[in-house]
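Hello, quick one for you while I still have it in my head. No rush at all, and the record is pasted right below.
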Amino acid sequence: MNEVSLKKGKEKAVLQRHPWVFSGAIENVKGKPQNGEIVRTLDSKGNFLAYGFYNNQSRVAVRLLEWNDAVFIDEFWWRKRIATAVNHRKSVLNQNNACRLIFSEADFLPGLIVDKYADHLSVQILTSGMEKVKEIWIDELRNLLQPKSIFDRSDATSRSHEGLDASFGLLYGETPPDFVEVVENGIKYEVSIAEGQKSGFYCDQRENRKLVAAHASGKKVLDCFSYSGGFSLNALQNGAEIVTSVDSSALAIETLQKNIRLNNFSAKNSIAIQSDVNKQLRKFREEDEKFDLIILD
């Protein structure tokens, strides 16, 4: 196996399980690893540190996977790692049919993000290593979850840092509908998997939406960059007096208004404005408009 040796003193972060090795920390590379290939990472004395994906086009030259030298990273290893991540989210799925199943480096699966929307999965593949083993983890997700579709939303510019082109489209199953209805924190949403931002919805903000809403009762709330209304809808559910939502996207505002109707919230408690947030904030200032709670996300 090809090897990457670090400069003296650069092993500390790896020993502390930081998942990245920057190109500037590398002393030399033994062999000619291809981008996305697994390499052994060594300290300056030749001692084993970890296995990881190598990429010579990225500032993050090695993305670490495994710190046990005796463990062999094969198909079984990948399937077990995917299954472990999915299993960690079972408690979330008891009350929601939408959540982030795989959190990239946080699940020791660098560059892989998987969001579940009802019976559909939306994925982002942001590293060459995850691109290389795509067939394995797609098959494991199919076995574990039996989704109707797995849709690729790897259209982020960050793929270019790995020498990868943007990728978009169906990876498995049927084309998802224009909008998929999901439930999070007891609130219904219509999510556009193909046309929405990122993977379609910001599943990783579930707890933040809930926490902010706890302070919204009886308040005049401003939700900036509101998108499809995650924070706005939680505020309305928790008794906000009125919520003003601002986003530059016409699709976002349209989806927000659909979601308000879907949850039977009163239209008199909600104002949706399609506008550049910075311009709209200046307008509020000129009009001496005041708010009790402002959300900037």
Notes: The first strand starts at residue 3 and ends at 6.
